[in-house]
Amino acid sequence: MNHNQGTAPFMPLNLALGIIFAGTPLAMGLVSLLYTPFEPNLIIPDAVSAPITATHPLGGDYLGRDTLSRLMTGARITMTMAIMAIATATITAFALSTTAVAARNTTTPSHTAQLTHKTITFITNTLMGIPSLLLALAVVSILGGGIANTTIAITIMLVPGLTRIMQATLIQVYAEDYIKVAKTWGVSNINIALKHALPNATPNIIVAIPIYMSTAILVEAGLSYLGLGVAPPTPSWGIMLNQAIPYINQQPMAAIAPATTIITTILGLNLISDGLNQKLRGKK
Amino acid sequence: MLTMPTPTILIMTKLVKNTLDAILLLLGVSVVVFSLLYLTPGNALLIQVGVGSDRVLTESYQALFSLNTSPFIQYFEWLQGLLRGDFGVSYVYHAPVFTIVLHALGVTAVIASVAMVIAVSVSLPLGLYLGSNGSQVLRTPLTTAVTLGVAVPQFLWGILLLYLFGNVFSAFVPGLYVPLSSILPMAAAGSGSHNTIPALAYLFAPALALALPAIAILSRYTYNSVRELNAQPFMLALHCRGIGGWQLLRRHTLRNLLVGYTTFSGILLIDLLAGSVLVEYIFNIPGLGNTLVTGIHQRDTLLVQGAVLYVAFLVVVINKITDGLYYILNPKLRRS
Hints:
The structure holds two protein chains of two kinds.
Chain A: H1 13-34, H2 67-104, H3 111-128, H4 132-143, H5 147-174, H6 177-184, H7 189-225, H8 237-244, H9 253-281
Chain B: H1 7-38, H2 44-49, H3 55-64, H4 71-83, H5 97-131, H6 139-151, H7 154-168, H8 180-189, H9 196-230, H10 233-240, H11 245-283, H12 288-297, H13 301-329, H14 331-335
Helix pairs in contact in B: 1-13, 5-9, 5-11, 5-12, 5-13, 6-9, 7-9, 7-11, 8-9, 9-11, 11-12, 11-13, 12-13
């Protein structure tokens, strides 16, 4: 908690800035559902390597597609993929880590419980042995590219790390006195896990989520940049970069726009994580 | 009466336990890698034989690469091969995977280690400076730069540096790969002249792309830890005893800082190895990352398996070394 000031601000500055930075691309993506200046894949002969004009605020790319429209649609695609991946991964990791830690701390220890705990820990550790980008690459190499497959690959990549963080937090929580008291009072294992341990572990988990979401965005961009993720002409940010780099001398804006958006989003998510850390855990 | 185990025995048990853990982990990884790629639809064999070609030819090819047995037998044969250092023969290159991967790893290792040296030698002083007490003019701009730096991923730095060195400064030809064995003579031959910088740019541009995010992350970690450390009561006590300057830094700040810093740089080194996939692709360097991506594009299953397993092996080794260093650097752990 905040010891220095009498009244803590409702929202730390970095949290507010982060919401603005990461919220802008999200808003862009939402707007693209209703309106984009042009069709994102429409080839406009006048816009081939077009400079910044009133009709094309961010110019056109090498094929003559409007960069702003593609950036907005790309925001929707990249953000949807990242949010889907992080949501699925968080739920999976929640289930895995809660089961693992609850099995270890059960009031009625059994071999099955021990085995469950050990199996989950071993699988997590094994998958952590492969760096996340390589794990995603390996999964994409089996499933093939495309939006759905890339999202699955990113989800699989996120699960081990998230599970480990949640498990570490839950182990700390299970060592607290109130859990021991609950056990003495005869509260059931499931109720201890869901009503006592999870709510107390939530702040730590929430702080980690923006960081993992930024990893998801980066890996999507990276995979698509390598030509292994989302397939062109779908305008994800990685695809936009991939297609703009060879023509960077003629039309730098087509590369600068997605690059800047990626950086802003990551910066925003990092700031949100810092801000939440201050607000939820009172860390400076 | 129970005799206390001597420290040597404790360390030995720990070492044996750690090695066994590592072996078990690697076995797990090998199962994952094998099954992941066993599931791959289509492979280089089909492409080579030609879809719809003679059944006898296909079968003889399958027998050649022993693909006609059950997956379990294939896994154990593959595992047996691994133990002999035989990772199989690449379908596409028709060369042993072990040699291909080892060669590519050498290229990656040079870049990753240059990047790591740059990252540590910049981030440590920078972090200590930003974490120290007292008012500095540079603090706000540098802290902002670090926060921004954390948000810029390796591959965007790569693109930026490729553009800057290649197109703006014209220091090198973008997409041309010059091996280290040629870079050093080139740099030496042109020492002091115009050619030194271009030659070195081939090595430093990709290394810098990997190092810059690492510098930002490590500096941020360092200054946060130093600030936390400075708020500790024992630091105040040391100040009261008149200990400061170099002595305080060497005996107290650094010793406390390095425990976490080492673990963190271990994690970052793994990150560098993985991040090199994208950076190598951008700079067209025939390292481990590029080998892997080409392998995936050409469905060269054995090559991909070998490369991923190699990286996993490195990750385990780096993690165990970091653990060991942690034990050496932190006397509190040794006592218990």
